[in-house]
Amino acid sequence: MKAISTFVILWALWGCDANQEKQEKVVTDETVIPVKLSLVEAETRSEPIRVAGTVASSEEARLSFKIGGIVSRVFVREGQAVRKGQLLAVLDMTEIDAQVNQARFSAEKSERDMKRVQNMLKDTAATLEQLQNATTGNDLAQQNLKIARFNQSYAKIISPIDGTVTRKQFNEGEFAGPGTPGLVITSSRRNDWVMRLNVSDKDWARLKIGDKANVQLDAYPEETFTGTVTNLAQSADPVSKLYQTEVKINPAGKRFATGLYGKAQLISSQNRQYAVIPVEAVIEGNGNKGFVFVNENGKAKRLPITIGYLDGEKVLVSQGLENVKEVITSGSAFLTDSATLQIKK
Q1: Does some domain include residue 71?
Q2: Contact residues for 21 (Cβ-Cβ < 8 A; gap 6+)
Q3: Is the CB of residue 307 less than 8 Å from the CB of residue 316?
Q4: Is residue 141 part of a domain?
Q5: Structural domain contains residue 87
Q6: Model confidence, pTM
Q7: Beta-carbon count within 10 A of 214 CB
Q8: What are 283-312's pLDDT values in tens digits?
Q9: In this structure, are residues 251 and 238 in contact, taking their beta carbons and an 8 Å threshold?
Q10: Are 331 and 33 within 8 A, CB to CB?
Q11: Could you read off the pLDDT of 174-225 as tens digits, one per residue?
């Protein structure tokens, strides 16, 4: 009996030692990661809009013939300087002149017919209705003659501004369609330069006329030009779904030309509030998306964030850190959700 009691006591003691060893092993196996915390600061800033575009003259004329026809003469070439009122191109006038003559003959005949009916009405040989019809026919013929002469006057292209021919899209002997731009003239005024940009609807809504811009051109890599937003399109391009924006540039004495490529940073006057954190706090950044870890009762918690933009060693976060006071910086790359934290000072 005494031997059995001794065995039971030894078994109980062995079980307690085994449980204690198991608990100690669980505690030992749990990884504790040392980390540092950084405060989340709040700042109100204007997020810049960065977009690429090309330089052009703000006064640009896309010239075409009003009616279609065969191009008879083109008097200019690309790159040539032209003056306001200068003749640039004409159509072959054979068909156009014939149409004017045809309309003139019709107008003369309708006028004779109207006078004849007037004389007949005096002799009661015609009715009032016949006179009214003849008068209407004469009015229509006169209007057709006016249209033909108007088309005749616009069978040539005359420069409306002083400038330079930057594009010539037809040659002598080719058919030019009505209203199809064949010559592009840009103003030759030295300070009349803009950069044309295409922005998204989100950025368009943040801009207004008068907002400032900084422009860098590939042609002058060491220069930064100042500019001002002067035009915002009121409808999107049907293909790209983007809105064209014009920024007037101060050339600061530099020589500009149509087509120069560059990038602009538009500074919106509309401010937004951002949460500012160190760049090392952000993990798995992809575009404007990323993640951070925060301390939640000694455990790591992973939060998604939306990045506004980078400012040196700081990240301005537009969404995701509402009511968050601190984020994990040092050690964040080794964390997983619910990992145990050791906060270092």
Answers
A1: no
A2: none
A3: yes
A4: yes
A5: no
A6: 0.53
A7: 16
A8: 887 878 899 999 888 898 999 999 887 888
A9: no
A10: yes
A11: 999 988 889 988 887 767 889 999 999 888 988 999 999 999 999 999 999 9
